[in-house]
Amino acid sequence: MIRHIHILGASGSGTTTLGCALEKELGYRHFDTDSYFWLPSWPPFKNIRPAEDRRKILEQDIHTADKWVLSGSLCGWGDVFIPSFELVVFLWLPGDIRLSRLIERERQRYGKEALEAGGEMYEASKAFIQWASRYDDGGMEIRSKTLHKALLGGLSCPVLSLEGDLSVEERVSAVKELLY
Predict the structure, then answer these.
(1) Is 126 helix (H, G, I), strand (E, B) or coil?
(2) Is 56 helix (H, G, I), strand (E, B) or coil?
(3) Cis-peptide, bond into residue 43, ω within 30° of zero
(4) Positive or negative CA dihedral for 155, 12, 140, 63?
(5) Single pTM value for the model
């Protein structure tokens, strides 16, 4: 039985959504790398937690759960956890769909006014969307398809690649097929 799953992909590809769905439907504990990478703040995603602290907290959390799913990217800082993965799920969506989702998520999170020119979150959101837009053509120096494909190529566990705009239900079903 597969007890430890890692889900990765670009920001906006649905890694967290799939992790939450697997937790709800199959009883896996869900952990998201953003909770470890970023220190709590408002607005969020401002202060990076030191790498050693991230590893320590994540290690404590995954050892409290028999079955877990970890969503998000941990390339570099979390490579020590790779041997514990029993299945890795890679999600990919075309950039236009991802960016549209991210922009909508930013609106929901901060409000339309905060994202307009001169708004409190305008510069940070603009920089985030620009960073996220580089996923498909970025190199090994950033969270990119190139970096993720290199990671996937070196894994000894099964890898499930789900590409395209699949529903959450379709993604859960594809994972379930490998679990049973």
Answers:
(1) helix
(2) helix
(3) yes
(4) negative
(5) 0.95
